Amino acid sequence: xxxxxxxxxxxxxxLLAAGVVGRAVALDEDRAAxxxxxxxxxxSTRTAQMRTDHLEGAIDLAEQxxxxxxxxxxxxxxxxxxxxxxxxxxxxxEGKVDTAAHRASALSAQQTVLAERKDPATVVAATATVHAxxxxxxxxxxxxEAVQYAAPGGPAWSSSGPDGFARVRAALDAVGGGxxxxxxSSSCAGGTAPACANSNGYIKxxxxxxxxxxxxxxxxxxxxxxHIYQFKxxxxxxxxxxxxSMFGGDPEFLANCMAVVRGFPxxxxxxxxxxxxxxxxxxxxxx
Length: 287
Hints:
The chain is mainly alpha-helical. Among the domains are: 78 residues; 122 residues, Zincin-like (2-Layer Sandwich). It has 9 helices and 3 strands, in the order ααααβββααααα. A hairpin with a 4-residue loop joins strand 2 and strand 3. It is rod-shaped, with a radius of gyration of 48 Å. The termini are far apart. The model has no long low-confidence stretch (mean pLDDT 82).
């Protein structure tokens, strides 16, 4: 009986021990699973955080890029306006100063602006360059005009005013006298002649001719410009037998024929032979 009780007790103890061992194993497995799950969760959290950091960085870069582009868009219109103003200034300077250097600098600035994608300061600097070019071009034109329009010892006009002077100037330019000095004076033949040319290379005009018709004014300027070209070959001209025989040694008659050759006939005509001979004076040839 005692032996049976002991056997039962022993079996119970063994079963209890087995149960404890099994429970411990189960607990270890649960613990391992929990740790694995925690590690997976930690890794997932870390991956998610890295993804979040990446997205935040990408968003920040995109916002910075958008801000830079917006800043560029704000300053570009000023550059475009500056280029347009420089173009107008160069058009106004045609025939007065060489604009090749200004044009090259403007093209370089334009290429810089077109290539810039981020820094608005680059565009602002290019705009400043364009404005500096406009200022320099204006100074060059002013210098040229001061030389061309300045009268010896006085202003370029008085009673004809700036508008009257501008009409006469435009007429002289139209007939090829863009580089010839011009000013108003009442001294031509004591005021009896509407205009006259000086052997020093400039033309004077009487104030009232600024009201002449465009065609008549161009003829007058072509006539006076012809005298300027006569002065350039004066010695050979006055020594020419052909000049004496064909024009009677009269520079006024020759000037009329020279104006006809340029397409500005006056009231006194000349024949084909006279026109052919007169045309040589425009290029410095005495035949």
